[in-house]
C-alpha cells in the first residue's frame, strides 16, 4: 500500500488505524452495554468515553514528558507507562 500521498509513515498509519479501531470498539461496546456514569477517584461522574479521552490526553502528556526528559531513549517506556496509566484510568477513575 502506497502511503506517499500524505507523507505518512507506517507508524503513523498504524497509530490512526488503532485509534479508529478503539473508537469502533467503544461504539460497539456502548451499543452492547449502554454506558452509566460512575464516580471514581477523581470524584467526577465519568463515562467510558470520558475515561478514554482522559487516557488519550494523559498518554500524549506522558509521551511529551518522556521526550523532554529522556531525550534519545526509545519511546517504548513511555508507551508502557501510558498503558499502565490507561488501565488505572479505566479501573479507578
Keywords:
single chain; 2 domains; two-stranded antiparallel sheet; 2 strands; 68% helix; flat
Describe this structure as you would to a colleague:
The chain is mainly α. The protein folds into two domains: 34 residues; 56 residues. A two-stranded antiparallel ribbon has the order 1-2. A hairpin with a 5-residue loop joins strand 1 and strand 2. Helix 2 packs antiparallel against helix 3. The longest helix is centred in the N-terminal third of the chain and has 23 residues. It is flat. It starts with 9 loop residues before the first helix and ends with a helix. The model has no long low-confidence stretch (mean pLDDT 88).
Summarize, please.
With 93 residues, the chain is mainly alpha-helical.
Low-confidence stretches: none
Mean pLDDT: 88
The general outline is: flat
Strand percent estimate = under 5%
Helix segment tally: 3
Radius of gyration (CA) equals 16 Å
**Strand tally, please?**
2
Distance between the termini: 40 Å
Structural class: mainly alpha
Supply the number of structural domains: 2
Largest sheet: spatial strand order: 1-2
Main β sheet profile: 2 strands, antiparallel
Helix content: 55-70%
H/E element sequence: HEEHH
Q: Which secondary structure elements does this structure contain, and how are they paired or packed?
A:
Blueprint: H1 10-32, E1 38-39, E2 45-46, H2 48-70, H3 76-92
Antiparallel strand pairs: 1-2
Helix pairs in contact: 2-3
